[in-house]
Amino acid sequence: MADTSASPRIEREDDGKPRILIVDDSLTVRMDLQQAFDAAEFDTVACDTLAGARAEIARQAPSLVVLDVLLPDGDGIDMLREIKTTMSPAPLVMLLSTEAEVSDRVRGLKTGADDYIGKPYDATYVIARARELIGVAGCLPKPAAPRLMLIDDSATSRRHFQSILEGAGYSVVTAESGEEGLRTAFALRPDAIIVDRFLPGGIDGDTVIRRLKQDATLRDTPCLLLTGATEDGEELRILDAGADAFLGKEVDEAVFLARMAALLRSRIPARAVDASISSLLGTKKILTVDDSITYLNEVSTELRQEGYEVVQALSGNEALELLEVQSVDCILLDVGMPGLSGNETCRIIKQRPALAGIPVLMLTAAEGPEAFIEGINSGADDYICKSSDFTVLKARLRAQLRRKQSEDQYRLIREELHRKEIEAAVTKADREIAQVRAALVDELETKNRELETFAYSVSHDLRAPLRALNGFSNALSSQYNDLLDDTAKHYLRRIHEGSLRMGQLIDALLDLSRIARRPFDQQPVDLSQLAAEIAAELQAEHPQRQVDCVIAPDLAAVGDRQLLRIALQNLLANAWKFTGTRESAHIEFGGRAQDGERVYFVRDNGVGFDMAHAGKLFTPFQRLHGMREFPGTGIGLATVQRVVIRHGGRIWAEAVLDKGATFCFTLRAA
Amino acid sequence: MTIDKLILLVEDNPDDEELALLALKQGKILHDVVVARDGAEALDYLFGTGSYAGRDVRLPQVILLDLKLPKLSGLEVLERIRANPATALIPVVVMTSSSEEADLLSSYRLGANSYVRKPVGFEAFSDAVQKVGVYWLLVNQVVAARRA
Description:
The structure holds two protein chains of two kinds.
Chain A: E1 19-23, H1 27-39, E2 43-47, H2 50-59, E3 64-68, E4 70-71, E5 74-75, H3 76-86, E6 92-98, H4 102-111, E7 115-119, H5 123-136, E8 147-151, H6 155-167, E9 171-175, H7 178-188, E10 192-196, H8 205-214, E11 223-227, H9 234-241, E12 245-248, H10 253-265, E13 285-289, H11 293-305, E14 309-313, H12 316-323, E15 330-334, H13 342-351, E16 360-364, H14 369-377, E17 382-385, H15 390-461, H16 463-479, H17 486-517, E18 522-526, H18 527-541, E19 547-551, E20 556-560, H19 561-578, E21 585-594, E22 597-604, H20 636-646, E23 651-656, E24 660-665
Helix pairs in contact in A: 1-5, 5-7, 7-8, 12-13, 15-17, 16-17, 17-20, 18-19, 19-20
Chain B: E1 6-10, H1 14-26, E2 32-36, H2 39-47, E3 62-65, H3 74-83, E4 92-96, H4 101-109, E5 114-117, H5 122-139
Parallel strand pairs in B: 1-2, 1-3, 3-4, 4-5
Helix pairs in contact in B: 1-5, 2-3
């Protein structure tokens, strides 16, 4: 490897590297994993006992713990529980144990393990999964320099291109095979990928690029294919695979770098990839369910070779139990199992909302349309004969995973569109409400201004002529008294009194309009005290009257003190007035609870009124008594009603002619 | 009785003008009364402008000011009186039909010395005019003001 001390790396300083703690009593496992993690630029420590692990954790908290379950000095699950309950933030924990018992996996995941990997494990899988977990947790900072990924099986070739790229300031990550490259690409999300066309094993460079381009999370990553000698027609095939560019391996360094720079410039700006779209190339977990251990192991081996992580279950029930805690990307389900059959298991899976989206492939020994139809009817996504070649199984599996990814992606797009639609509708509704409200406020302000103007002119303009009527009739009767006979004097007096009365009416009308116009000042009000003050004033105005006035103590309300005073003043003054002909007048102000409401009342033993006319009581200028007997403007009760309404309350009256009246009201301002 | 004391009555309504004069007469307040029929005329008189330009007029002892006036409103007149050093210290009594709180507030804010609401009943009106006349002409002491 070239000298990289001055070049950008994934993590430049030791401190920035995620720390991995490996806890396993097997020396070979420790060595193998430590080597793999070190190579992947992690800061790795390993130990063989729980005691050793505790000491390491105490020394420096790791980002991730790879933890064996069976250890010489105890149970790994206990350690897991200890980590997850006592540490904050708790490190990620990946359990690494034999696949023998489904219950171990269930127990581990239920205790809070972030993942469970069965032995025999694949080191590149463990690394890729670690990168995914840590990356999700946000522990892998992206370097400032563009990060390139180089996939080449030749160590010489890798060193050559790595040193050129690092010399130009790029950060470089390498992979030796197509499988490793694809997994690492998903975990690291490089800015561009350089692939050697000729790779050993199942996946060559063309395939790597094809799979990258099929993946929603990586399809926009530019790919450069390195080729040997190019023959006629090669170029077409290369571009057909989806490569953005290709270069011969013997290319000139300057040309290579220029091409690289152009490729990076052409890159579509990175989209925020939604975490719920799983990459096709990320680590994939497949649950295989079969009652035959032999077949399970056979399938597992094949799938692990392909880079999948395999979880095994021996029955439908075991599979369902597992699925409660273990998320998987695909399920391979044997049809002919004792107990819960494959079709029944499939039906249950598809009925559970959390599981229904997982593709299910049914495996059957039998060929024939009946089995196929039954499988599809139970909700399976595909149906494969066990006798088929494993390559068929693998291809169908990939197809299902791809379909799932597309579905997820479209679902996300749909949800996003839907969300935007809702947002737009809400914004529109808000805007409309605001507009309507503004218009109403506007209208209200206009109306209020009109009312002000009206009240002002009533107050000013209507009174002036009255003053003239009154003044000049007065002047006439005083200055020409000798010239007028009694009838003329009587007429003049009527003119005089009429103008005075009209003045009173105008003032009363103004007072009424002020009730609606004045600002509402809400505060606690002691109604008992207010009533007592008013009663004392009334007594002072009519010192000759003997009125027995009973005021209940501590009647409190919340409202506008001034308005409430006006209301009580009118009610008590009315009671005072209409008991004027009584030998012993009684007036009572009290309160009672009625239907969960506070009801206040003013009761008198005055002349009362006929309930047949109760409907007219609160209408301005409506009077139920003769002017001579009980003078008044007919505006008092209308005023009281306005005050009560402004407090959100109601007012009503009960009376018996010649026996007395009771006015009741509620206030709901509080 | 000092005869050179003068009342300026600013009133556009001829009825109110006549009633005010009648009230003063009944109250034996026999000082000169100058009547201005709108705000502009009142200011012309006070500032010696317009039809009063070049005429030597006496400044009033008190101004009885209606608020609702044609051309310039009573409040505007009040503001101009207070803004002019020659008239700034002359007592102004607002006499109006309005009992709106807004008018009361504006009048006092602009420097009115008194605010009287004209009652409808002549007896009460006459009583108010006489009391105002007696107080501002006879009881109250003013700063001797001369046209600048």
